[in-house]
Amino acid sequence: MSARIATIGFGAMARSLAAALARHGGGPRVTDCLLRPDSATDLPEGVTACTDIAALIAKAPDLVVECAGHAALAETVPALLRAGLDVVVVSLGALCDDALRAEVMRAAAEGAARLIPVAGAVGGLDLLRAARLAGLDAVTYRGIKPAGAWAGSPAADAVDLGGLAQATVVFSGTARAAALRFPKNANVAAAGAFAGLGLDATRVELIADPAGTANRHEIAATGAFGEMAFSVTNRPLPGNPKTSHLAALSAEEAVLAVFAAGPFGADAAPRR
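The structure corresponding to this sequence follows.
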């Protein structure tokens, strides 16, 4: 029997995940989702909605994927972990809240469940974690997006997004401060911080580029190992231009890795 996956929310990322898993055939598939009682979301055939956490827990899915934002993580993930359900977490920025992160870790221990973070829209975090073992001196994350992509964020208060003539820094500070000030843009910064020097020692620059046409994420680090730099330019996720396609693919890969048959995951390799 195929592994049953539940999602927290059913927005563009959850829809992308459900469709992608269905294309694999015979592997894990999305069968349930947790939605607010007043949600009017149309669900594809084979996916049923739960409107409270108890109902979802009663379904006993094999894995839960959180992809509904920081508030949803705080409201749902601790209870799911305490119930013994493994949870893939997309909204890593929420865990910049020390109290919430501690609660989540306690819940995982109490339920003997796994919290599985995803890298999201950037790569190289495995090497960053390895480099940390020898000691890191500095880690910097830079997020560059088209000027219009920052509309509705605090960047709009800092600069005139419509009047920019060149790429402009709209935030400079720590990963923790970035997560608090830009919660919808903090997941990659948080992922880099958790893999490297932590929230208060990781530097973050957020940049609005009037000539930009895609989102670019850069991580640079130096330490006893030497130096490294990673850059990823992401196309937007179809159905949600504010989300990187690679972020959705990262969640898909995390699900496939959990249920992969071999050490290299060959049996779960995407077939598109």
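Residues 266-272 have pLDDT under 50 and may be disordered.
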